[in-house]
Amino acid sequence: MIRFFADTDDISENSIKLSPEDADHIRVLRLRPDEQFIICDGNGTDYICRLGDRTGHSTAKIIDQIKSPGEPDIKCKVYMAYSKGDRLDYAVQKSVELGAHEIILFESGRCVAVPHDIPKKIARLQKISLETAKQCNRGIIPKVSHGGSFDSIITDAAGSSGPAILFYEQENNLHIKEVLEQQFPPVQEQKNIKTSSISIITGPEGGFETHEIKHVQSKDIRIVSLGPRILRSETAPVAALAAIMYQTGNL
Asked: What's 26's DSSP letter?
């Protein structure tokens, strides 16, 4: 079913005001008055709709509303280092597909390329997030933002409500499988508390600097291996997210 997003201010009890872009899209699609489509409020609620104002195609009539089925029940904040070319586009797109709640980009010592115009780059990636959220049945549009320096995002991640994990190619003792089984045990083994959020940090093409890892060791962040193979900068966040979503029953 075709999917759109709308601001909550445009949603009333019985109808939703369409943005000019979505109204134009509907005209191009030539939807019939009896065809249904979905408008999401960006907060996890889907509205099943039909066309309202048939002449202007500017409103949608609400038929029903449900909780967005594609939204995971765990909020995963993804910190990823800037990478060159279209690698960052790929990493953001696939992270949104897999269920990332938020994506924060940062500068690290071995980043090969940091955009000269960061606001322009963030705007482009936010558009990728929006289009991916539409295609992948998401209930929110994950925010993409610039987190600044490595030290800044480490402080932010350490202060998050849930556990924080940094993936490092030279970690040999602690594997992601072990950490996820500890953090997200099977339902029958869970006690009263279930983790509902997690932060993950992945590095640039050249990996993390030694001094960066030493800094992390002084924080409340676990340093974890993603396996014996060296993953590319755009692959690491995707692999980590897939493992988290599988372990938490969201895949």
From this structure: H
Q: Which two tokens stand for residue 177?
A: 């499988």
Element (DSSP H or E) covering residue 199? strand 197-202
pTM of the model: 0.90
Q: Provide the b/e sequence for 109-126 (b: ≥16 CB within 10 Å).
A: bebeebbeeeeebbebbb
CATH number of this structure's domain 3-67, picked from the four choices 3.40.50.2000, 1.20.210.10, 1.50.10.10, 2.40.240.20: 2.40.240.20
Q: 75-247 in CATH: which number? A: 3.40.1280.10
Give the DSSP H/E element, type plus range, for residue 107.
strand 102-107
pLDDT tens-place string over residues 91-130: 999 999 999 999 999 999 999 889 999 999 999 999 999 9
Phi/psi at 183 (nearest 5 deg)?
-80, -35
Question: Range(s) for CATH 2.40.240.20 in the chain?
Answer: 3-67
User: Which DSSP symbol is given to 116?
Assistant: S
